[in-house]
Amino acid sequence: MKVIISGAGIGGLALAQGLHHAGHEVVVFERGTLPEGPSGYRLRLDSRAVAVLRRLLPPELWTALLASGVGAGAIQRLGYHDQHLRFLAEDRREDFDVLMIGRGPLRRMLAHGIVDRVRWSTTVASYDVGPESVSVTLSDGTVEHGDLVVSAEGVHSPLRVQLLGDAGYRSTGSIAVSGRVPGRPTDLGLPVMDEALRLGYLLASGPHELGMFLAVHDPSAGPSIDPAAVGPVAPDLEDAYLTWGLIGPESDMPTGDDAALRHGVEQLVASWHPEFGRLPGLSDPASVQRYGITAATEVPIWPTTAVTVLGDAVHAVPPSGGIGASTAIRDAGHLVEAISATSGRAELLRALHSYEQTMRGYADQVVADSVKPLHWQHQLASPAVHTVATGVLAGAQGLRRLVRR
Length: 405
Ligand SMILES: Cc1cc2nc3c(=O)[nH]c(=O)nc-3n(C[C@H](O)[C@H](O)[C@H](O)COP(=O)(O)OP(=O)(O)OC[C@H]3O[C@@H](n4cnc5c(N)ncnc54)[C@H](O)[C@@H]3O)c2cc1C
Known about the structure:
The chain is 36% helix and 24% strand. The protein contains twelve helices and 17 strands. It has helices spanning 10-21, 47-56, 59-67, 103-111, 158-164, 191-197, 258-268, 274-282, 324-339, 345-381, 383-391, 396-404, and strands spanning 2-6, 25-29, 42-45, 77-82, 87-92, 99-102, 118-119, 124-129, 134-138, 143-146, 148-151, 169-182, 200-205, 211-217, 241-249, 289-296, 307-309. The structure holds flavin-adenine dinucleotide.
């Protein structure tokens, strides 16, 4: 079977790996290029996504992937703090994060061995379903035929719009500005953050519905596998960095180029602990970006054809949940499983229908869970609640309940 995948992001590449190793012909179209060097943000992949990747990747690539990230022991908690960096509460979990890996290394690892199956800098414009085959038309007018087309283009997917008639997401009203600071907090003169980040992530709640998420990524400090166990594929190791993301209401968040964004964030956190205000200036200017937080509307039911859709293209997961990439990988795993052993169009359509039903079974819940962390900011926005919740440090359990509602 020949499968055309539109989009070499996380889900598209995971699918391509799985299908390629199952013996299918795969062609991936990607409008961008494969990033080199440090790029993007650190992703956390949950245990489900890691289990899928283990199944989809050949063993030597799997061990190299693990060696390119940080394993479970490095993150033991999510700590809630106020804007003065005072500890409020924490969320501890047994399997808190299984693999933390930069988006660049993850995509490079997922492209390993199939890089010649990807046509980079090539944009897919539309699809067409014929009686025997299906095709995509590229933006230069070229047509490519296959047996199945998978839209894996993330949010703003043109094929999703063609298939389902709408973009399938809404704005949450929140905007994020994020950046990455090269180095470890210890070396950067951020002692209070260093202490707070030692056991895991930090979520700081400020006034006016502002919240900042912080995480340190240091693959050399805690690789998830003994380097001696790594096979012939070399790990893709990044130098240590700290990522931050300030989320707030659209009307208050800065706009403009990276200098304007950094200046705007400095102003917004001016009354916070001074270490927050130092982050924009320490950041790699190229890493500073602003993006709207969008969330999928309910995944619709559609008549199955030889065109299907996975990942953010069908269920845009807001980054506040930290689970969108994991869910795209989960989709890819189900799709590979469903179509691997099919032959003929009728069987393929039955398999695709089964994949779509399975994906619908969890996607809406994943999106709903990912929107929840935005609610605590709205709840804390009321001056009375903010004062009580952040002032009464001994009442951490109260905040914890508040956060979880
Ligand atoms: C700051 C931030 C932090 C995040 N942290 C986490 C985290 O810790 N854990 C987690 O699980 N998730 C996280 N996410 C979410 C995660 O990045 C996304 O949910 C995930 O990348 C979705 O995967 P995807 O394959 O659906 O789409 P993408 O990874 O977005 O890939 C889509 C690809 O399709 C390409 N494309 C688009 N249109 C076309 C076209 N017409 N033709 C050809 N190619 C096209 C794009 O260039 C892109 O490469 C985070 C997101 C952000 C913004």
